[in-house]
Amino acid sequence: MARGLADIGAEGVLLAGAGRAILMQIADPAVGHGVAEHSNFAEQPLDRLRATMTYVYAVVYGTEEQLAAVRRAVNRAHAPVRRAADDSTKGYNAFDAQSQLWVVATLYDTAVTVYEKVHGTLDDDTADRIYREYAQIGTALQLPPEVWPEDRSAFARYWQESLGKLEPDAAALRVARELLYPVSGPLLLRLSMPLARLLTAGLLPEQLREGFGLPWNAWHRRGFDGTMRLLAMAYPKLPEKVRHWPKNYYLGQLGPAGNRTGPARGGQQHSDA
Questions:
Q1: Cα 128 from Cα 189, distance rounded (Å)
Q2: Average pLDDT in the 109-130 region?
Q3: Does the pLDDT at position 267 exceed 70?
Q4: Residue 114: CB partners within 8 Å, gap ≥ 6?
Q5: What is the bridge-based pairing of β-strands 82-83 and 92-93?
Q6: 197-219, pLDDT tens digit by residue?
Q7: Is the pLDDT of residue 268 over 90?
Q8: Are the beta carbons of 251 and 219 closer than 8 angstroms?
Q9: Where in 194-250 does DSSP place strands (E)?
């Protein structure tokens, strides 16, 4: 049986792509302006990551009660994120289906990109199943099922068309600066940022790496390639308890696990959440 999202989604190494996903999201002004005006990376750099990962893990692994709780929290957070178009912005709305599609698309593409760099290329059956199941990260909120591209080929066309329209503006550049060069937050976070910046730059498409002004030369390329080779050699050998720690931690913050009946499971049951 082909593996599914529940078989790969708990891998903590996927968090290596967090910076990439966020920068790709905010490069779309419909998302970026909302983030810039309603998030505070400068003072709370981990808040968006925590909220996003708690939601994703709840969709894939949580109980119905956990999913309902986190869905309510996300919707409350999204409710004020709206603005009508004016001279300075085309407007935005966190409940907009196309904006939600783009956010889920960046999470999906980033997860697959990082997973394949560490674990190798997914076979077609597994890749197809993961793609189908990833739609539920969006449809658990307001994304209509029919908006998610029909298959991986349709997604590839949507992805390339979307990339061609992206160009980080001043708001996106400010958020990226606050995210990648934090002046507050835990010391360990700030010490880890050189590595986070290297991974983010290496994983981004070239046009966005340049658009965000991220340093990149032969030395950076060698450092990135070496880091990914090291991860590919060492990470799969780690105990599952270590590899799945982020998922277990974030779900633990939601309360008792209970029975797993969430929408994206559809396959192997996991007993460690």
A1: 35
A2: 97
A3: no
A4: 13, 14, 16, 17, 203
A5: antiparallel
A6: 999 999 999 999 999 999 999 99
A7: no
A8: no
A9: none
